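Hey team,

Filing this mostly as a record. A colleague (T.K.) asked me to run one chain through the structure pipeline before their review meeting, and I want the input and output archived in the tracker in case anyone asks later how it was produced. No errors, nothing strange. Just documentation.

Input sequence:
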Amino acid sequence: MLLIRCPYCEEERPELEFRHAGEAHVARSPDIAAISDEEFEKFFFIRSNPKGVVFERWRHVHGCGRFFNAVRNTVTDRFLMTYRAGEKKPEISAEVSK
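Output structure:
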């Protein structure tokens, strides 16, 4: 079982307490009604989904209920770090991402 650290509760908890909420740091249009169908499709459905290090949103549903961001390696399924929603996207070195 994976342990995920909630940056608000400041403790590691079992993955069953959390829900994945998609890719983090997605730029949202300030006027979603004004964008074209193609732009809406790209915003709503298309994600990068790379192999390796990804930035994701998570929610601690069975804890504090808050959303936060996580850096995870999709190859090893290892969480490299978590940080509060609204914080700047961290720079990840090659050593940390292994």
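Quick notes for T.K.: Residues 3-84 form a domain with the Folate-binding fold fold (CATH 3.30.2270.10). The chain has a mean pLDDT of 92.
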